[in-house]
Amino acid sequence: MYLNVAEIESAITSLHGMYPEATEIITPPHTTHEGRTTRLLRVGARQADEVPGILLLGGMHAREWVPPDALISLAADLLEAHGSATGLGYGSSSFTAAQVSHVVENLNLFVLPCVNPDGRAWSQTTSAMWRKNRRPAPAGSTGPSCVGVDLNRNFDFLWDHTTKFAPDADVHTSDHPCDPQVYRGPAAASEPETRNVVWTLDSHPRIRWMVDVHSAVPVILHNWGSDQNQSTTPTDNFRNPDLDAVRGRPNDGIGEFMPETDLKIAVELAERMNNAVRAVRQVDYGVEAAYGLYATSGTSDDYAYSRHVTNPATTKVFGYTIECGEAFQPVFSEAEEVMREVSAALLALALSAPEVTDGLEERADAGGARPAGPDRVAR
Ligand SMILES: [Zn+2]
What we know:
By secondary structure, this protein is of the alpha/beta class. The protein has helices spanning 5-18, 66-84, 97-106, 117-125, 161-164, 192-203, 260-281, 300-310, 332-367, and strands at 23-26, 40-43, 53-58, 88-90, 93-95, 108-112, 207-215, 219-222, 229-230, 256-257, 287-289, 318-324. It is built from 9 helices and 12 strands.
């Protein structure tokens, strides 16, 4: 059976109770529209500021029932294996006891399994296909679909699509509060659930990677989602107002800038996740830049990676979205298979992210391939 919101909370409490040395409960400050508090479980034997971290998000979209369960399951598996000094296996994707221990001792996983608890409760009790949060409908708007904001269109990254994208860019978001799926909200980061994710990144500068787990395509997406990637013209980027009338069109010679080394890192880590997924039961999710699915604005993955460009004092965070499985609410035996795929992917990422990222960055520095200084940042 899928976990409900109360069961997710009690799982966090009990995992911390069982493994106090290897976990910490962190409570982001913003309560939801219905008054719920969300908590995250930091899994790692070292303190939050001692080692690099990966932020794992689930449950942003209410009807996607598998990701929160997958993240709780991964945390439980990892802590149990570490506690008993054993390895972990998901189908043919296996991790040795030494690898499990390496992850827990040298990394922090910040597990925020249920970003949108109001939405999950609504989906599990009342309206199974609900996607948004439960922000009350604005005055004068009536009808059930006028409730709620799509949290994954609410982040402060090219949020105002009506001014930031070409009119024909087909960016999948909406400024209509009654849009049943993709209403972006009244302002960027207007929602408490969004602000809890932002707070987690702000408060934990050692977080260098973020994976937002969704369902269901399946596919593993890396930055960017706003336009096609390009690594040749640094000034063609999300901060450049000259692109506002043309941003988001395919194959027009204008794309979102991503330094070559970053793109290599983004793809390499995504492929390692995909290889781990495939080893579970031979399902190939595939790897794409997020724009390949469709143009987006205000998403968590692009927001995470944009932060260091907007504010060079913040840590660079590579952003991923895993779209797991093939159904929002598969029968639970299938959900368990998908949970294994997600767990294998995230463990593979945890094992290789620091080494791959640092290795490719050092190689770029040594080769002088990485443009230095202000040229990297847009006007
Ligand atoms: Zn989703």
